[in-house]
């Protein structure tokens, strides 16, 4: 399948149309942004890590019964995916307090949560992706009540699966953000990516950060952290 025209350029990815209207090609860039685009930079090799890791995890999730947009990895940075209209929600799951949760609620970073939490944010850069609840979502027409119930059920199943998987490679899954889309026939599927850009990964023993927080917080060793996560994920395959 070949790219025809660029239809969208985001902060970390470009999306192209293909000759099949049901498919798109996603191309992962090394560009990194944080704080709603205020901080900009490049993380060398990030596009390759995010593409491969996301594809690997989506295939695992698909086998575990979660429908995803993944179709075929075309190259190190490019993947054929099902075309969806993105539901404009960032769906955030947290197992351990960190980031904006710690700031908002005054819960020290690293505090394990008594049960996983779920947050929805309305995807809108101008508004700074405000947190919304199910009433807001249905009232504004971003998704129906049934859609929200389905997204919630998928999301907790995804969390259970990913937590177990990462535990097996000595990584604590602190929190993550996912997005869902709707196919032309109205099916909700997991879209976007699952990568060190969108998850907080801590080494299970040392709590060393192995994700985009190294870039956000200028901790150094950004490329090494992405490389380390890539190694651990793919080593798990050869076991
Ligand atoms: N996240 C993301 N994109 C966003 C906001 C958050 O992928 O626009 C991820 C982030 O990497 C983390 C989780 O969602 O794994 C929770 O992020 P948080 O709300 O703590 O925001 P942050 O502290 O990253 O601003």
**What distance separates the N and C termini?**
33 Å
Number of H/I helices: 6
The structural domain count equals: 2
- Which sequence of SSEs, written as H and E, runs from N to C? EEEEEHEEEEHEEHHEEEHH
State the total count of DSSP E strands. 14
CATH uppermost class of the largest domain: Alpha Beta
Largest sheet: 7 strands, antiparallel
Helix content: 25-40%
Category from helices, strands and their pairing? alpha+beta
Properties at a glance:
239 residues; alpha+beta; Phosphorylase Kinase, domain 1; D-amino Acid Aminotransferase, Chain A, domain 1; 2 domains; seven-stranded antiparallel β-sheet; five-stranded antiparallel β-sheet; binds uridine-5'-diphosphate
Description of the structure:
- It is a single chain.
- The protein has 239 residues and is an alpha+beta fold.
- It has two domains: 3-82, Phosphorylase Kinase, domain 1, CATH 3.30.200; 85-221, D-amino Acid Aminotransferase, Chain A, domain 1 (2-Layer Sandwich).
- It has six helices and 14 strands.
- Strands 8, 9, 10, 11, 12, 13 and 14 form a seven-stranded antiparallel beta sheet that branches. Strands 1-2-3-7-6 form a five-stranded antiparallel beta sheet.
- α1 (46-63) packs parallel to α6 (222-238).
- The two termini are 33 Å apart.
- The protein binds uridine-5'-diphosphate.
- Residues 90, 92, 98-101, 129, 175-177, 198-200, 212 line the site of uridine-5'-diphosphate (UDP).
- Uridine-5'-diphosphate binds at residues 90, 92, 98-101, 129, 175-177, 198-200, 212.
